[in-house]
Specification:
Pfam families: PDCD2_C (PF04194). InterPro entries: PDCD2_C (IPR007320). This is Programmed cell death protein 2 C-terminal domain-containing protein. It comes from Cryptococcus amylolentus CBS 6273. By secondary structure, the protein is of the alpha+beta class. The protein has one domain (about 10-125, about 170-235, about 265-440). It has helices at about 120-150, 160-165, 200-205, 240-250, 255-260, 275-285, 310-315, 330-335, 385-395; strands at about 15-25, 40-45, 50, 80-85, 90-100, 110-120, 215, 220, 225-235, 295, 350-355, 370, 415-420, 430-440. The longest helix has 27 residues, at about 120-150. It is globular, with a radius of gyration of 24 Å. Mean pLDDT is about 75; it is low at about 1-5, about 155-175, about 185-205, about 240-245 and about 400-410.
């Protein structure tokens, strides 16, 4: 796989990126084991936190029994649970994103929160140890051959096996990497890169885990619960754009107009800023990815929503400045995460992990929020189409508010939820850092 692509790169210059796109993949049947597993990925429903060692240190934190809004201090529902064990790690890692649906709490700090649960997976540890022993044996054999004949490399001219296995140039998600959202099993291979791995002696001691914990009614939850499936983000190369452009020459004006009406281009107002155009373009151009509700790229860069949001100005200082006529916005050159606080448990660096995009709002509607543990009998309001949702987002991003427009009670209004998690993947359960770009605050 190609290196992680800059969030601000022109979509026509990209192919595969390191970003995984998560999309809804159908409801989870009632009473299915996946509903109470921390190794499942889904939207809506109740979160399940893994079992923690009974004699865990205070630094590992405790499993919560409820997540409350930082504004109204009421219980808030889960938006998404994402099982995402790092490729080179020894832990199960699960991320949880929650948001308060109350209109009065939105646009206020603490109304959107995220948690991370990391617990040692002995199968992963054994797998890593086995791979390490094989690699060390191969490296020792290569060193022995070099001592016998120091002027030659391997018979094929290759570098020693150890340098390939322990090199620092491995991408986070290799080409053969399994999806980090896949459920854990005995056959799971979470480790393709072995660099910088170490077994902590204290953690390696036998542990006794307590029970896992799944939230239950009467806590609020969106229903039905839907699986998340993932694909690698693929942006068609420039040649595709050229072929489309050349084919336009043979089309009538009416055909050209119909073509442009199919996408965002037709509804984008002239006042829309470049950052929002990049956001829209990236989501729209991903092959088979138009239904994405979440983007995952541990250690990568987020995709900002608007140049005018405080979050974008913090992470991409200078993105709000007007561009010259022939200038192209390069967000990757502006990106900085220096303002993101360190992990509150281990003091390690936090890195970008995932972001939730606004198409999720059209799935987790107010009428789907219940406290009974099952879907509501309430008649669903007419669902807005994807095209109507696009137009609504564009108006909000441009600061346009229709006269007499009234906020629907319980309708979420964020445009982007960005989550940063501990790079060290320290064992335990605790809150991670969240940044939110709100739709109604994006006036230009």
């Amino acid at each position: 796989m190609a290196p992680s692509s800059p969030s601000g790169s022109s979509s026509s210059s990209l192919c595969y990126t390191n970003t995984l796109l998560a999309m809804p993949d159908g409801p989870i049947p009632a009473a299915h084991p996946d509903l109470t597993s921390h190794t499942s990925s889904f939207i809506g429903g109740y979160p399940t936190f893994p079992a923690l060692p009974s004699a865990a240190s205070n630094k590992t934190g405790s499993t919560p029994s409820d997540i409350k809004c930082g504004v109204c201090h009421k219980s808030i529902p889960l938006l998404a649970q994402v099982y995402c064990p790092p490729e080179d790690g020894e832990n199960d890692r699960t991320m949880y994103v929650f948001a308060c649906p109350k209109v009065g709490c939105q646009k206020r700090e603490g109304s959107v929160r995220a948690w991370r649960a990391s617990v040692r997976n002995e199968e992963y540890v054994r797998d890593v140890e086995e791979k390490r022993k094989i690699a060390e044996k191969a490296a020792e054999e290569e060193r022995e051959r070099a001592r016998q004949n120091p002027f030659t490399l391997g018979s094929d001219g290759a570098q020693p096996a150890g340098s390939a296995l322990f090199g620092s140039g491995q991408p986070l998600f290799g080409a053969a990497a399994p999806s980090p959202f896949a459920a854990s099993s005995v056959s799971t291979d979470p480790t393709s890169a072995l660099s910088a791995l170490s077994i902590n002696e204290e953690e390696a001691a036998p542990i006794i885990a307590g029970p896992s914990k799944t939230f239950t009614p009467p806590l609020p939850a969106y229903h039905p619960v839907q699986y998340l499936s993932t694909i690698e983000e693929y942006i068609p190369p420039a040649e595709d754009d050229v072929s489309i452009a050349s084919s336009d020459d043979d089309e009538t004006p009416e055909q050209k107009a119909e073509w442009h009406e199919d996408g965002w281009e037709k509804i984008l107002p002239k006042r829309t800023d470049e950052v929002f155009e990049l956001f829209v373009g990236r989501l729209e151009s991903a092959e088979d990815g138009k239904r994405q509700v979440l983007r995952y790229d541990l250690g990568g860069q987020p995709l900002p929503y608007s140049s005018q949001s405080p979050l974008t100005r913090k992470l991409f200082p200078g993105a709000e400045k007007p561009l010259g006529k022939n200038d192209e916005l390069d967000l990757s050159a502006l990106y900085t995460d220096k303002s993101i606080p360190a992990c509150s448990r281990c003091g390690g660096k936090r890195v970008f992990e995932l972001q939730v995009v606004p198409s999720l709002i059209n799935i987790l509607r107010p009428h789907t929020l219940t406290t009974t543990g099952s879907a509501s009998d309430e008649v669903a309001p007419t669902a807005i189409s994807e095209d109507e949702r696009r137009k609504e987002l564009v108006k909000l991003a441009a600061g346009i508010k229709e006269e007499g427009a009234k906020e629907q009670d319980g309708e979420m209004e964020w445009g982007n939820i960005i989550v940063y998690g501990c790079e060290r993947d320290c064992v335990g359960v605790g809150e991670e850092w969240v940044g939110v770009e709100w739709e109604s605050g994006l006036e230009l």
